[in-house]
Amino acid sequence: MESTQPPLSASQHSPVTELPSVHEDPSQADHSRLKPGAQLTLMRYLQDLPDAEVPHTDPVPPRFHTGRLPNSKAGDGKPRLLLMGQRRSGKSSISSVVFHKLPPSETLYLETTTRIKKESMHSFMDFQVWDFPGHLDYFDPAFDVDNIFEEIGALIWVIDAQDEYLEAIMRLNTTILNLQHSYPNINVEVFVHKVDGLSEDYKGDTFRDIIQRVQDELSDHGYENAPVSFYQTSIYDHSIFEAFSKVIQKLIPQLPTLEALLNSLCSTCHIEKAYLFDIMSKIYIATDTSPTDIGSYEICSDYIDVVIDVSEIYGWPRGEQNGDDESLTETGNNDAESLITMERKGNNYLYLREINKYLALICLMGDDSPAEKKAVIDYNVGVFQAALKQVFPRAERDAVEAPAA
Ligand SMILES: Nc1nc2c(ncn2[C@@H]2O[C@H](COP(=O)(O)OP(=O)(O)OP(=O)(O)O)[C@@H](O)[C@H]2O)c(=O)[nH]1
Predict the structure, then answer these.
(1) Cα gap 173→194, rounded to integer Å
(2) Which residue, 68, 83, 218, 252, could crosslink 223 as a Cys pair with Cβ 3.0–4.6 Å?
(3) pLDDT tens by residue, 320-340
């Protein structure tokens, strides 16, 4: 990794450790069991640059993940997140709250989905969200199953925890078993949803019961270690964003690189927790590897809301401001930054820096990170920002080509 600026440390002015190399996963090399479409992964969507392609026969592993699978064809399709589950389980509500900022209470007025609703999301990576009607039997011969599941990123199965869930589990298992031969690598993400209405004890019992039933039934059919993950979610708190963050993170091949960069930044600047947020959806696409607690995510997520609200009032059209100044057009915009104090078990600091058009870095700092270190933190975050440009070149290119209106 080439960096024009040597980084500084908050305590001693020593360089930040060099960016780690991330090698291609050899287990991904053999996909002969899969249908051609299933061989594609999200990587190729992420950085659709000609120079990001890695020839299959290249004996030298790339130093950084390139955003493309060696055997993938160049295409302009987008990875899909499929939202499936029983009627009224909350699929449309989830999509509306996370991606359209619909206030949760207004989901009461959402109409039943009668046909597959396909939406494209444009952010640091482009993807599609397909919202399925609850009653649909997609394994009916009338449906082109390959067309639905071919370029899928994740299958999100929503189960209403406040309702009778046995049939939902049965349909989920049927779907997993049907898919396992052709698409064994699909991530199945089960959202045990609407947990807001349940008592703590009942919530835990229901969650465990659902996991047990799904796993038992799958192993009865000889399918051990199915790639299924479970989350407790509700649109009335941050849990749905947290769950979506984890789903999306699995689709980002550069995640280990991002985590290593954030770890490095945290240790150099004495930051307790750092999140890289997708501003539009408030999904965090990476965080450092120190333990995450929902509380720190909530603080950061609320802070993004404040910053967005303020910038909507006082913001300016950045495209016009950039002019020809190369240092500005490189990142697509001026850096927006702020440092505020918060009363939360002492003097904690929140530091936000807009990284590019799509991403913002938010850091949570404890007592030992007072404002006087801000210059050093600024500098190191600048180094982090420069490194990120190499990890997500496409986001930068978009920011230059299509400045925000
Ligand atoms: N308590 C609670 N209610 C929720 C939650 N999410 C959704 N709901 C409610 O569940 C009801 C059904 O939500 P929808 O999003 O329409 O469900 P759907 O799965 O899209 O339904 P179909 O379109 O019929 O397949 C609505 O009244 C929502 O307000 C949640 O997290 N908690």
Answers:
(1) 21
(2) 218
(3) 444 444 444 333 444 444 555
- Indicate which residue's Cα is closest to atom 5 of ligand 1: 194
CA torsion 192-193-199-202 (nearest 10°) is -30
317 CA → ligand 1 middle, Å: 37
Measuring from atom 26 of ligand 1, which residue has the nearest CA?
Answer: 108
**378 and 261 in a common domain:** yes
236, two tokens: 């009335």
Q: Which residues of 162-177 are buried (b: 16+ CB within 10 A; e: fewer)?
A: eeebeebbebbbebbe
Number of domains, the chain: 2
Ordered per-residue pLDDT tens for the chain, 405 residues: 444 444 444 444 333 333 333 333 444 434 333 344 433 333 333 334 333 343 444 444 333 333 333 333 334 456 788 899 998 999 999 999 988 889 999 999 888 888 888 888 877 777 888 888 877 676 666 667 777 777 778 899 999 999 999 999 999 998 888 888 777 778 899 999 999 988 889 999 999 999 999 999 998 988 888 889 999 999 999 999 999 999 988 888 888 999 999 999 999 888 888 999 988 788 899 999 988 877 888 888 888 888 777 777 776 665 544 444 444 433 344 444 455 555 454 567 788 888 877 888 888 887 665 666 777 888 888 889 888 888 776 555 554 454 443
Distance 70 CA to ligand 1 centre (A): 41
> H helices of 48-152, where?
91-100, 145-149
User: Tell me: the pLDDT tens digits for 159-184?
Assistant: 999 999 999 999 999 888 888 877 77
Residue by residue, DSSP assigns 186-227 as: PEEEEEEE-GGGS-HHHHHHHHHHHHHHHHHHHHHTT--S-S
Q: Does residue 58 lie in a domain region?
A: no
What region, left, alpha or beta, does residue 154 occupy, with left being phi > 0 and alpha being psi -120 to 50 degrees? beta
Q: Which domain holds residue 125?
A: 80-249
One domain for residues 259 and 245: no
Closest residue to atom 7 of ligand 1, CA basis? 90
**Are 274 and 371 in the same domain?**
yes
Please report how many Cα atoms fall inside a 13 Å half-sphere around the Cα of residue 315, on the Cβ side. 18
Cα–Cα dist 239/244, whole Å: 9
Contact in structure between 276 and 305 (CB atoms under 8 Å): no
